[in-house]
Amino acid sequence: MAKCHFSAMCIICTVVSIVSVSILVGLWTYQFLSFADQTRSRTEAPDSRCLPECPLPVSYDVTLWPRLKPTNEGLYIFTGNSTVVFKCVKETDLILIHANKLNLTADATLSALNGSPAPSITSTQTISKTQYLVFHLSEKLKAGEWYKLHTEFVGELADDLRGFYRSEYEVNGVKQIVATSQIRLTHTCGIFPCFDEPKTKPVFHITLLQERGTVTSSNAEEIEKLNTSVDGTDVTMSRFEWTGMMSSDQLTLIITDGTNVQPTKTKRKRKFTPM
Ligand SMILES: *[C@@H]1O[C@H](CO)[C@@H](O)[C@H](O)[C@H]1NC(C)=O
Ligand SMILES: *[C@@H]1O[C@H](CO)[C@@H](O)[C@H](O)[C@H]1NC(C)=O
Ligand SMILES: *[C@@H]1O[C@H](CO)[C@@H](O)[C@H](O)[C@H]1NC(C)=O
């Protein structure tokens, strides 16, 4: 009786073990297959953080013009343009660049630094999920060649502390108008389109257009300040020296009515040669 009982237990145990192992193998296979699926779609769709053919940016020349008064639609916006110089590492007919909630206001242009004609941009695609701007090219960029991509854009001055944002503050109980508020650039891809930068620290040249009478500072020294007018609006234009080599999230820009806030300065490398 005891033996029979023991055998019954044994059979139950064996059956349970076999079922468990089957379930494990099944789950593992399922996971393996869906992982394989994911990797496959990741290389196909422009979805990955950095494709092997990620271009290496060496410099960004950026002009930004934040509007401290709302548009007719009640939006606080900034406009700007950016020229990035990059090296093509692996030939590709696709340029992926990060741009969080930026709208292009003109067709982007691509040129080759060696003067030979560059492929033309046949279409532009925005992938809001991954915050990518994708430029499809007529031909492949050549590995080892240097290119220049120019974009013009508009973005919103959010108050959610990402990217270019605005804040209002009170002095002696009086809320200061937005024109006197402080704007700080922290989340670079919300400010201008930028590449993932796994291997390089590019340099930045910033020009800022702002309402007359406001004060600006950045990582680099201000080297020129002049009152001018752009599109019929009086502005002060500040140009900053090239920054030292740094990652884009170190870039800081502050526009204020004079409150003394200083971002960390970077030392400018005396000589900059793009590799
Ligand atoms: C960028 O925008 C500013 C202001 O509108 C303009 O003066 C400048 O020429 C533009 N830069 C380029 C390279 O188009
Ligand atoms: C960008 O385009 C989207 C969609 O057309 C629009 O909802 C948004 O307000 C635009 N942003 C700016 C800052 O113009
Ligand atoms: C520009 O204009 C502002 C206000 O009109 C004035 O305070 C400032 O001194 C001027 N700056 C230059 C460089 O002329």
From TrEMBL:
Keyword Cell inner membrane: no
All residue ranges annotated as the Aminopeptidase N-like N-terminal domain in the record: 57-248
Coiled coil residues, start to end: none
Ranges that cross the membrane: 6-30
GO biological process, one term: peptide catabolic process
Transmembrane found in the keyword field: yes
GO cellular component entries: cytoplasm; extracellular space; plasma membrane
Keywords assigned: Membrane, Transmembrane, Transmembrane helix
GO molecular function, one term: metalloaminopeptidase activity
InterPro entries xrefs: Aminopeptidase_N-like_N, Aminopeptidase_N-like_N_sf, Peptidase_M1_aminopeptidases
SUPFAM superfamilies xrefs: Leukotriene A4 hydrolase N-terminal domain
Entry protein name: Aminopeptidase N-like N-terminal domain-containing protein
Organism: Pangasianodon hypophthalmus
